[in-house]
Amino acid sequence: MKVFKRIFILLLLIAIVYGGQYAWRALPILSGYGAKDICSCVFVAGRNPKDVIDNELNSVPLKYGTFTVNYTDSSATGSVFGLAKKKAVFRKGLGCTLIAEMSEEELRQQKMNLSPSKRINTDSIPWPQGDKLQDTINRKIDKAKLQAAIDHAFTETDTVRAKQRRTRAVVVLYDGQLVGEKYATGFDKNSKQIAWSMTKSITNALVGILVKQGKLKLEEPAPAEGWADDRKAVTLADLMHMSSGLKWEENYGGPSGATNMLFKKKDMGIYAAKEPLEFKPGEVFEYSSGTTNIISRIVRDKVGDENYYKFPYQELFNKIGMNSIVMEPDAGGTFVGSSYSFATARDFARFGLLYLNDGVWNGERILPEGWVKFSYTPPIGAKRGQYGAQWWANAGEPNNPTNRPYPDVPTDAYLAEGFEGQSIFIVPSKKLVVVRLGLTKTDFDLNKFISEVIVSLPQ
């Protein structure tokens, strides 16, 4: 009996030690996620803190955290049962940044050469540069079917909150014209919403601009810090295709490379670049937010800090009328190209329209010729034809295109996609761009939604 008691005590001690170690690693991630999220939702998007806590932060395990907003110093803090306190700080023009591996004073003392803020009344400027819409839409569009498709995206069929669609915005463009739009209660055309991983596709555009300027080349070794070993074989194209071969764990259920990077590290791109090779570069597709932040760091290094914080705005956003967008940096000062940007649904639609128009806006070529095709063309590592270069694709298997992610949508479709159901869906053959934003905890049926929209268009 004493032996069994000793074994039980030993196992209990092991469980306590292991649980303590796990909590030590996991709790700061939970606190950091909540602090960063509520900071951005309040100070960037203009939301009410209680609304954010009741919605974004109301699921398990986030509901066990305590998250508070301080309007005096424009910050937000998070903790779990008083432990693992994390703080995010808002800075005008930069959004919110989670403090990591440095003091708050050091973060606040950073000096960035920001792009001047522009106050433009876009209501008097015609779409797409502004928000003045045409009085009529294409007569060949079946308005009833289009409205039914949009309404369906907002219709709840389940009383369980975690299973609901919770769509917040839909914008539909056909042949460049805004033909459909709807918002959930509390949101409108001026509401900034988070992109999450749709930001990866914005990072794609920034790389494209540098390629056009001759500052980056896809087929050359990626100029990442410290890659003098076997990683020197990794090209920029490999990174863009998520086929770098670098070891990575894109897991958000607990401590992982992805969560440690986003919620514990100062320089996210440098952290991710330290990972070793696991596969031969260019052969295996592995989705990685770390890879995108390596790319984001490369963009910063090539542009240089003097112009870096102006670069996305002057070379991209201002040109296409994305006046609402805010890209947020990590504590080291590099834009979190994998995850952190906020904009209105209309501005995300403008971004999609740029790609629908092959990178040309009002006659100006912003992205290099052939860049959009490169962006949606799957590499050999994406066996199902599901990914291009920082954009998801719908090409299907090379010899069996019926096996594709969205079987009821044409194979030329591609999309920017983010956590909780954010998407910019582009279908060139249908002249279509659809933005859908939400807070969906389960999978939103994009295949059905987009196919319903397509049915309403001229055939």
Describe this structure in words.
With 459 residues, the chain is α+β, with helices and mostly antiparallel strands. The protein has two domains: 2-98, no CATH class; 143-455, 3-Layer(aba) Sandwich (Beta-lactamase), CATH 3.40.710. Helices cover 33% and strands 15% of the residues. The chain contains 14 helices and 15 strands. A six-stranded antiparallel beta sheet has the order 6-5-15-14-13-12, sandwiched between helices.
Give a quick set of tags describing it.
459 residues, alpha+beta, Beta-lactamase, 2 domains, 6-stranded antiparallel beta sheet, 4-stranded antiparallel beta sheet, 15 strands, globular, disordered N terminus
The SS-based structural class is alpha+beta
Shape: globular
Report the biggest beta sheet as strand number plus sense, adding barrel if it closes.
6 strands, antiparallel
Multimerization status: single chain
The arrangement of helices and strands along the chain is HHEEEEHHEEEHHHHHHHEEHEEHEEEEH
- How many strand segments? 15
Mean pLDDT: 94
Helix share bin? 25-40%
CATH topology of the largest domain: Beta-lactamase
Number of alpha- plus pi-helical segments: 14
CATH class (first level) name of the largest domain: Alpha Beta
